[in-house]
Design brief:
Order of helices and strands: HHEEEEEEEEEEEEEEEEEHEEE
Structural class: mainly beta
Largest sheet: 12 strands, antiparallel, barrel
Number of domains: 2
Oligomer: single chain
Radius of gyration: 22 Å
Length: 395
Amino acid sequence: MPRAAVLALSLLVTAAAPGAARAGPSAVLSEARVVDGVGDVDTMRLGLFAAGARWRAAPTLDVQATALALATRGTADLGDPAAGGFGGELAARITPWPDAAVRPHARASLGGLLFPGAPFLPGGDVYEAIITYGAGAEVSLGGRWRGSVELFTVHLSNGQGLGPFNPAYDGVGATLAVGYALASGPVIARPAAPSPSRPPVDLVVDASLGAVDDAVLASARARPGARLTSRLTAALDLEVGSLADVAFAEAGVDLVAHAAPVRGGVHLGYRRYAGIDTAVVTAQLELRVTPELDLVAMGHHERPDAFDPVWRAGAGLRLAPTPSLTLDLGVGFDRLGDPDVFGDDHADPYLGVEWRSPWGPGGRRVALFVERQISTVDLVGVRLTAAAPAWRRVR
């Protein structure tokens, strides 16, 4: 599945978040951004202008939709100057202290840009995804006017893998924004905490279809789990399927320890595919910053009996703007220590979107999910899960 399809479906699901739709816009805003390239594009600078609206999805979480216009200056090592373009963007902004005089915030955004005249960079395509992570602060300027500054990192690529057809742009920049607050909409409650009456045994079942490069992946996955103590949960993780018409099976166990605001988990697994046996170990740490935001860090190791070991790592955000919607956004590092595979470029954005229906059989919920994994697997699937999600392992 091309990354463009994942991006389009992710934007569609995110835009349909029920909390944001009911609240109405809480502010209109405009932003000016300047970006300085790094690496192969260190002589190229970007200018972005954004205008749009912001919705209050939760007391400490805003969702923002903007239109983007892009201008460029300078020349990259890749060749000719980059072309200008236009597009749109969706962002989630966390403000831990929304009532303070100076309100620090963190923001992550995902969008798309079109270049009808010429590719963004030579050898590229007419579209690019734009992914941004930043942090800044907002202050009141008097009346309903607000002003903010932000520092950020940005990545542009067209989602077709590594190579001359996907020249990427990475840079760092600053934003100056002005906003005007509208009449406030209805107050949206924070997502409810998991019920203490949750049954001691839970079962999550997935059915998914996806791709790894040009190979089709189909799988079914079951994760029965049990709460051993008030702070410790254990679960099996069983998956069967086929990749490129070759069957595979993977079995593992998860151990998750809870000690608010920190949660840590370890996955130990075994995979058999095409006659190759692989041991799998994953460690993941999560920090609860607000009821709507977790910071996530992951390390992963695979040791096949026929090839060299594989290392992966990732760091990102997990957002829960409503009880029915969960978003994962971050940066992953695939096949660390293996320059023969990807040269010097191991980093790539990862994302995940899950929307759970407000109803389901037996008190459970039917969910739709989309994932772009660190391992470069693209997935679309359906999931049967409890209202309070089980441990989510970044893969």
